Amino acid sequence: EEGDTDESDEEEDGDEEDDGDEEDDGDEGGEEEDLEDEDEDEVAEDGTVFNLIPSVKGRASSDEDSENCPICLNTFRDQAIGTPESCAHYFCLDCILEWAKNANSCPVDRIIFNHICVRTHFGGKILKKIPVQNPDKGNEEGEEDVTNCEVCGRSDREDRLLLCDGCDAGYHMECLDPPLHTVPVEEWFCPECAINNPTDGE
Hints:
By secondary structure, this protein is of the alpha+beta class.
C-alpha cells in the first residue's frame, strides 16, 4: 500500500510540476512580450539610431563604390556621365574619354569596349554613344612617331621638316619666319627655344 501511495504522490507531484511549467511558460511569454514592447519603445524613441545605422552603413559603402568616379574619385554631381557599353561601371564622361585615348578597356574590370554611352546623370538614360578607336590598332598603324609642323600642322615634306634640338617640335623650313633655304648643319632651335637659349643668339 505504501508503494501505491508513493506512486500517487509522484503523479500528483508530476501534475504540479506540469502546472508549474505551464505557469512558467506563461510568465516567460509575458516577459518576452514585455521585452518586445521595450524594444518597440526604444525604436520609437531612438528609431533613427537603431533602425537606420545598419542600413545607412550598407548604403554608404555601395554609394562610395557606385556614386564616385573610379578614375578621379569625385562624387557624381551635375557632370555628364560615361559608361562603357560592355559593362555597368560609371565614370565622369571627361575621365573615361581621356582614358579611352590610351586604352579601350574598362578601368575597373578591364572588359574591352568600342563605344562610350553618354548620360546626363548617374543612372540616367543613354543620350548617345561615342565610338572609341582601339588605341592598339592606332599605334600599329602609326608605329613611327609622326611629327607635325607647329605652323601649318601638316606632317608631309619630311625632308624639309626640322626638329628642334630643345623641344623636338617640328617646323617646315618654309614655314619659319624668316624661312630657311638650307638644312642647318649644327644644332637648330625653334623660335620659342631660341629665345630661351642665349648661346644660340651669340
